[in-house]
Amino acid sequence: MKMSEKQYAKFVKEKSPKSPLAKDMLLAFLIGGTICTIGEVINNLLTTVMPDEQSASAMTAVSMVFLGALLTALRLYDNIAKLGGAGTLVPITGFANAVVSPAMEFKSEGIVTGLCTKMFTIAGPVIVFGLLASSLYGIYLLILG
After folding, report:
1. CA atoms within 13 A on the CB side of 122
2. Neighbours of 94 (CB within 10 A)
3. Has residue 126 got a pLDDT over 80?
4. Alpha helices per DSSP H over 2-116
5. Helix (H) or strand (E) run with residue 110 in it
6. Distances (CA, A) of 14 to 5, 21, 29, 95, 109
């Protein structure tokens, strides 16, 4: 059966399932907001017991990475992501998920060739770019003041 590009595009549009855009956006907002609220609650609790705000902020970041990795290891983060979609891409927990998921998937290949190698499949480029960008920014500040 031969179709023109327009006919094919019309056929695909008719057969594709309709996306519940409003529902998806609401769930992403609620799930992402919940993750951020949990981070704020942890930060507020730590601010009351830590000597300075900077230490509390650092511990909050560590806690959120731990929670993201733990939920991924318990296979709960994927269920949350199915419900909340882009809302689970909140940077710090999403990053933890991006590191732990490939490691879990390839752990059967061994410690070095599986776990350690695949752990940075997704996160590796982010780390490299972050280091490169921060180094260039540091050189820029050193030269220009």
Report:
1. 11
2. 18
3. no
4. 5-15, 21-49, 53-73, 77-84, 91-105
5. none
6. 14, 17, 29, 37, 43
